[in-house]
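Team,

Forwarding the record for the chain on the shared tracking sheet. I've put the sequence and predicted structure together so nobody has to dig through attachments.
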Amino acid sequence: MIPEWFRIKSQEKFETEQTIFGFFDNYRFLSNFHKCAVMLPIDDPSINWIIYPSSENAYQAMKFKDNKHKFEIATLSPRESRRYGQIEPIEVEDWDSYRVIAMKMCIDAKFKEESLQNLLIYTFPMELVEANYWGDNFWGVCLNGDKWEGKNMLGKLLMDKRKEIMVERGLADADVHTVQDS
């Protein structure tokens, strides 16, 4: 449940800046917790892929080398997978330098689905900001006093993916100006 104060602050930002500020309601599909099939390769001689129920699950699974963890994460809800990824020791060396690449792979896999591509394109030209109230200022932004602070890496990766899809479909050329280019 989204706190009312957060919803009000997000709505103010949307109305004043035409920014999608928080991935909920009509923009829930932008959230990593949105339920959709995300298929990633696996190093296993008997199968080539695992299908995860969300990009959050896929992202958390990428923290592990052991397939046992990957299969377990595929059975969890997005929220449960996040907890799992926070509790179990990360097996991938230098995860902090790899995590943006891992998230990009998850976003690429998520947006292979044409209906999700269409929804992402319809957000153009708005800036996508993963505003949150749980303190994640790397993937999103958080309210610190009366100021929103954070890197918004998830929003930036989504805007990059949107631009990529638009170029692939001939809806824009590679030089299209988008907010993330500003």
